[in-house]
Structures are given as C-alpha cells and as structure tokens.
Amino acid sequence: MHFVKKEPTTEEQKEQKRKEREKKLKIFSAARDRLFDKRQKGELDEEVLAISGQLLQKNPDVYTFWNIRRQALILISQKIAAENSDDEAKRDERLAALYKEEMILTEACIQENPKSYGAWFQRGWVLERTPKPDYQFELKLCNLALRLDERNFHCWDHRRIVCRLANIPLEDELKFSDEKVNDNFSNYSAWHYRSSLLARTHPDPDGRLPMDESTLAKELGLATNAFYTDPEDQSAWFYTSWLFDDQHAFAEGPVPVWVTVDRKKSTILLVMSGAVEAKTVGDMIATDADGEWIPADSQAQSSQVWLFKSSSLGPATKVTLSYKALDVQVEDEWTDLDAIRALLAPANPEGSLKTALEKMLASCQELATVEPHNKWPTFIATLCMRRLDAQANHDQILSNLEKKLPELDPKRAGMYADLASDIRVDRFLLDALAEYSPVPDTLRMVRMELTSLGQLHLFAGRLTQLDLSENRLKSVAALRRLPLLEYVTLNSNEISSLECLSDGMDNLEFVSIASNGLTSVQQIADLKKAKKLGRLVVCENPFCDDKEQLEELRRVFGDSVRVIPFWL
Amino acid sequence: MQLIDRDLLKVYQLSSGRVFFQDVDDSSKVKEADSLTQVRDFIADRCRARQARKLARLQVQVDLAKRSAFTLLLSDLSSLSAILSTIAMSLSAMFDFARKDVEVGESAPKELLLEKHADYIHAYEQKKDSYEYIMAEFLRMSGVYWCLTAMDLAKSLDRMNRADILQFIKESQTESGGFAASQGHDPHLLHTLCAVQILVMFDAVDEVSSDRIVEYVKARQNEDGSFGGDEWNEIDTRFSLCAVACLKLLNRLDAIDTPKATAYVLSCQNFDGGFGTRPGSESHSGQIYCCLGTLAILGELHRIDADRVGWWLCERQCASGGLNGRPEKLPDVCYSWWVLASLTIIGRLHWVDKVSLKRFILACQDDETGGFADRPGDMPDPFHTVFGLAGLSLLGDERLKPVNPVLCMPEDRLASASIRVQLLNPR
Fold this sequence. Notes:
The complex is a heterodimer of chains A (568) and B (427). Chain A is an alpha/beta fold and 568 residues long. Chain A is 50% helix and 11% strand. In chain A, helix 4 packs antiparallel against helix 5 (117-127) and helix 6 (135-148) packs antiparallel against helix 7. Chain A starts with 10 loop residues before the first helix and ends with a strand. The relative contact order of chain A is 0.04. The mean pLDDT of chain A is 93. Chain B is an alpha+beta fold. In chain B, 43% of the residues lie in helices and 7% in strands. Chain B contains 17 helices and 5 strands. The radius of gyration of chain B is 24 Å and the shape is globular. Chains A and B meet through helix 1, helix 3, helix 5, helix 6 and helix 7 of A and strand 5, helix 5, helix 11 and helix 13 of B. Chain B: Belongs to the protein prenyltransferase subunit beta family. Chain B: Residues 112-409 form the Prenyltransferase alpha-alpha toroid domain. Chain B: It catalyses: geranylgeranyl diphosphate + L-cysteinyl-[protein] = S-geranylgeranyl-L-cysteinyl-[protein] + diphosphate. Chain B: Catalyzes the transfer of a geranylgeranyl moiety from geranylgeranyl diphosphate to both cysteines of proteins with the C-terminal sequence -XXCC, -XCXC and -CCXX. Chain B: InterPro entries: PGGT1B-like, Prenyltrans, Ptb1, Terpenoid_cyclase/PrenylTrfase.
C-alpha cells in the first residue's frame, strides 16, 4: 500500500475496524447489486446516476461503474434531444446541465484521488460531448491541481487534451511552461512540456537541431540558470543534454552504407545507417535471384544489417541498389565510406551554436569545481565535450568516463564503462578507415577494456576475422550482426552464454573462447548450430577439469567439430 | 477553490534530525519540538482550532534545510478523523517524501523470506468473503495474476487451486470475447491480458475460445495504431502492451496492424528517450516498460535510442539503492520491476548497482506476515510482492524461477509454449 505505514494495532482497534468494514461492505454490496440489476434490466436512468455517483465518489477506480454511467448518460441525452427536437437552445441548455453534474462528480472524485484514471477520462469524455464546454474552467482546474501536485501526469495529460479541443495557441502554453519552470526549476513535468512545445513553435529549418539556433541558445541559458540553482536536481541536466545532443546524422531516415555481393556463396549483405524493415530493403535492392531477406539479429523485424540468402545468385546475376538519386549495379561491393565516417565521427558544431555550447561547457566545468561530489556537472560536461569535438577531446572524455565518474557515481559504473568502450571501438574503426585501404577484413581489438562494441556492425560487409581477446565482454550478441564472420577469438573475457549465436552464424568456422570462467558445456552448446564450425578452443575454463563435462563436450559437438580443451 | 496562503504552519527538519516548527498565523518565534509526534499533535490542534473558527483549510509546509519543500494541504477540515488519518501518512513519511528517498534501516530484512511470501499469497486467496477481497473485485483478475505469478516464481504454483481459478476465468469472459476483472464487471484489455497469462501458466489456453479473444483485442486498435482499453476507448500505451502481449501469447499477432502499432509507440518517445501515456506525455517508468515491451514483442527494439533511455532508467536508482518511477520521486519496489525489466529488455541491466538494489528490495519484505510493501516499513500487498520477487529473479536469485522481462511470466512457461521475444544484448 502506498504511503500507508505499518502501525501496531490493539485487538480492540482491530475489532472496531472489522465492524466498520462489515458495515461498509454491506452498503457497497447492496448498491453494487442494485446497479448491476438495473443495468441488466436496461433501466439506465437517473437512479443509476445517483447510485453510481455515490459509489464512485468513494471508489473512483471501479471502471465498470463509469461505464454504466456513460451508458445512462447517453440514453438520457438521447431522450433530452428527442424531447427538444424543435428547440435547439433548450436542448443544449438541458444537456449542458446534465454534463455539468458530471463535471461536479468528477471534480469530487479527483479530490478524493487525484490520480484516478477513470475520473480524468470521464472529464475528457464529457468535454467532447457537452454542447457548452467550458475550457477556461478546465484550465483553471488543471492549474489548481498542478499547484497541489505539479507532477500529476493525469492533470498534465488532461491539460493537453483541453488545449487541443480548445485550440489554445502553442505560444500560450509555452508561456505557461515558462511560469511553471520559473516557479520551481525542479519541475520535470514543465521542462518536458517545453521540450515538446518548442519543437513545434520554433522548429529548426534544417531539421537537424531540436529547435532553431537562437531559441536553442536562449534555452541553454535558461537550463544553465536552473542547474546552477539546484545542481542535484535531474530536470535541468536531462534537458540540457537534450539541447546539445547530436540529432541523427541522417535526419531524413536511414541510408545504405555497405552492400557486399558474394556470388560464390550466393548471398547479399546490406548495412544501413539505421534500422529498417524488410519492405524497405526489398524496395532498395533489386535482383533477379530468388531468395529471402533475413535480418541479421534474433527475433527482429527491424535491423541495420540484412542478409539475402539465395540459391540462384551467380556470376551474371544483376544486383541493383536504388535509393533516392542513387542507382548503381553492384558487382562485388558498394560502400559509402563518407557516410560511415560521419556515423563514427559526426560533424562538429560551428558558428553561434558552437559558441553557445562552449559557454555552457564552461559553466558546467566551473560548477564541477564548486560541487566536487556531484557527478552531474562532470557528466554533462563530458557529453558536451563529445558533442563539440569528440576527436580532439578524446582523451579527456575517456579519462572522465573511466576514472572520474565511476568514482563520483559508482552506481552507474556499468554505464560509464559501456560509453567509454563504445568510444574506444568507434575511434579504432575510424583509425582503421584512415590507415588502411581497402578496409581490412581482419580486426584485432585486444586488451582494450571493452565491455561493449560500439558500431562494429558498420563493418559487417567486410569483417571475416575478429580478435577480441582480453577484454571485459559479457555479451557477444553484437557478433550476431556480423554474418560473414569466419574466425573469432574471445579468450579471456567474461562470457557466460553463446545462446545469441545459435542462429545466423553460417560462416563461422573457428571460435576460441578460452579462459572465460565457463563452468558448464551447456553455456556454449548453442554453438553447435553454426553449420560450418570446424574448430572450437575452450582451454582454461573450469569445465575442462571435469571429466563428465569433457564427455558432454564430445557428445554435444560430435565428430564434425574439433574441440580443443587443452593447449597442448 | 482558493488557497489561503497566509495560514501556514511551517515544519523544519535539519539534516541533523532536529525538528522545528513555526506557526506563521501566530507570527511567534520558531520553536523546537521534542519529537515528530509532538508536531503531529500540534497539527491536530491547529485543525481543531481552524474547525472551530470555521476556516476551510490548513496548509502545512515541510521544509528541509536544503532547497526542497513539500506542502501538505489539509482541506475540508469538517472531518477531523479524516485529517488525522491523513497525518497517519506520518510526518516521517512526509520527510521521506521531501528528501525523495528512504532509509534502509539496519533492522530491515536482509534475506529472501520465500516461504513466508508463499504463505502470504496462499492465504490471500483464501478469504473470499473478506473486505479486501470484495472491494477489490474491480481488479480481481489482475490480482489473481499477481498472486499466481508470485507463487510460480517461488516454485509453489501447485499450492493454488487451479480448478477454482480456471472456473473464475471462464466466468469472467464476456460476450465480446474480452475478460472482465470478475463476473458482472465489464471486459477490459488489462484483465484480458491477465486472463491469458494465467491460462498460459496453467497450460489451459485450449479451455477458452482464443478466436473470440483475438476478435476483442483486434477491435481495440484505432486508426493511428493506438489501442483503447475497452469499447470506451481510453488510449494509453499500457494498452498497446496488453494487446500485443495477449496476441503474442496466442500466436496471433497477424490479427492487428503491427507497423501502425509500432509507429504509434514510437510517436510517444520523448526528449529524454523515454515514453509516456500518449504522444506528448511525460516519461514514466511504467509507460517505458509498456512501450519497450511492445517494441520487443514486435521485434522493433532497434528503432529506439537504447543508450538514451537506458541512461534515464539507470538514473532512477536513488542513494538507498531503490528505484523510483520518475525523477525526484520516492523509490518503490514495483519500479524494481518496471525499470529493471526495461533495462533488461535493452540489454543494460548492468547499468544499475545490483547489490544496493537487492538490499532495498529485501528490506521491503514484511518479516511478520510475508509479502512485500512499496518501501521498507509500509503495508505489504500482492502487487508489490510479485514485482519484488520478479525484480529479485532478474537480479539472478536462484531460489526463484527465471522471469521473462517482457511478459512478466516464468520463462519455463513461455518455453513450453515456444514463445520467444526480442531482447537487446542478452547475456
């Protein structure tokens, strides 16, 4: 029970409570029986309104009572309409009176329980039916309810409904959110409201930023005031991070970045900048070969990586990639390395946006010195540095994520580690693109403290060999998006299951998963389903010391896979 | 309705624990109280005084030495017992509220009292003519689902009366095909989902007509892809999850427009990566769970920014280790489910500190009666019990069955029915 403390009660108090409840139960049951009985008989009249009204005031969450009420109201309003078919004004007056009663009831219910879904919904339902909706009254009611609890989302949602029905200009609502935020900087609900309004009142003409640049700069100033006033409150910090967040590199939607055609294996692999469904893929790549597009991920409808498996894709088969102005025939491979570079290293902001962000960054860093135990200024400053110039600030960003922040905020150490790991991987991939041409099909990311694999899947079209030894990986689900992988080394990590690789790894020939603390063969048994698997190295795992487990190993993998449990 | 600002009683508690109060009405000096009980009595006296002068309202403002403040508005003083029961929320709870966190005391339970919980749930279902049982008839189907799931996770489902429960379910199905909370009440997606979940747990789906259920669910989808809870069409992303989960369990996702269902959920994504009730609604852990669950069932998890929502979710962890539902709110054991399940769905369970979270959840147990409460020291109930247990299961407690983070049902029941859902980065 929310907010009800457990208090010790005497036998006497218990008995008195029991008696009270018995009485209440009798009254409730009688009223409820009468109500259901009348409904069953089709007697949806004023008595139904009276009984349900009484019941709902005490129990505004009994949804069936609201339903019965609505049925009665509909019938009664139809009666009123019929009785006054020749006098519209009189009809509307009577209907308005009928619905006014409803508003009074729901107001009482809301006072009893300000978070009753049923009561708020009924108000919205009435507003849509009453001939004389009083929107100003509704707004006043919302204002009052918000003064009692400024985070009541039922009230905020109702306010949005009223504004829509009444066609209240968005600018007015923006002013309202202004007042709320200035009243109390800790009002997350008000900041949230601002975020959805500004996108509509001051949109960015290029569609890249959350709002137009000059408004953005003003909001950054407002948010800075807020986080200075209350540096421990989350609202302003979340809002700030959204303001400077990099809107997607391809605002128009996902674009193709890699196509690999393997005419020997009869497959096509497609990598997109963002997740798409099968239909989009089918529209993008035309081929005479028959086959099916499969997402390179388990149980996925949308995916960034797709694989086309065919039986009839030969040396002469046409494969055409068509996307907007692009229309090319792909022989073996098509890539958009510029797009990949943009995904790995988004363009840095320039001009007035850059100035505004630098100013905010300075405020954050200053606040960090004043509030040395507070992780927020340091974390937001780190995210801001990444946005301003991820490459130049690379070392400082990693230092914050790997040393300073886990110390300040140990609870979220897992997140900081993953963010740092993603940055390391993306930088590694960027360097690989710069250093090697063509893009290498073998990558070694050894001893990099990796817990997460960033955008490794962008290389799915080329990668056949991968060495991820001596890292801190717990999940290898990311490998599922590299269907061309043939050799993978995962020694000295913290992997406890390979279930995610149980399908789709049709090219995997060699896996090494030594020293991962594996205690049972069942943890890797799913690898059996990799059809081409020829060699499996499992040395220095606890199960290697267990005779029965070694038997199990031989049994599971049989003759087709050479299993190596000992180095020599 | 007008607020009378001049009538103010201010109560302060410093971080040292000392309590002071100031009666602004009296413009007397600040006085120190011996205890919170003394302040509570003082407030009761003020209520009586205002009642006598026929003044409608008393505003009590609770401040901490820091910047946060909490205002308790005691309106309609005509019923003093109601006022005192409002104060029964207790001043210490108010201070918890203002600090937006709770203390996990040294004497709080530290071990999982599994047998006690099984006994608690088992006893709950027995008292069919009790006050609680009857007054909760409007949510009984959900109540039964909470109890059964808790028992199954505790590996004690066989202690429940399968035959009685199946009978209850059949009696609750209505003409429309949907299920009501209990016989006599109206059908609703919430209770339809719970009914189907119970049937799957008992492997008894064949005992009802799935076609009729599918028709009911299908009829709830609107043009824009959203789902109404029932024929009255209250729209809420909770109902998107109810609909797709129901159909997933019956293997009938083909019955609805899944691309539109996805598009609607995505339209509810907010600036912070979270999701709300409807487009434009504030992010809330419960709604995020429903939206991520819907996307998982539809295989569309790659369409969202998992890092962004994952960050928002892991910031729900308070200093006490408990999880809250939204920024600046109190931690609550049920969020140990909504938040934890959400993080598991997007492969980021390790973004919270499991040790302090586990300690918080265990502290919410009632070591006398069994069951879990929303936070340490409060009254337990089946709702918080199932989510406390489910949260512990996600954290890897081996005395409990593994739970599915999308469908909130034991994994073995889903495996038997060959039901799999998408998860990001599973381990």
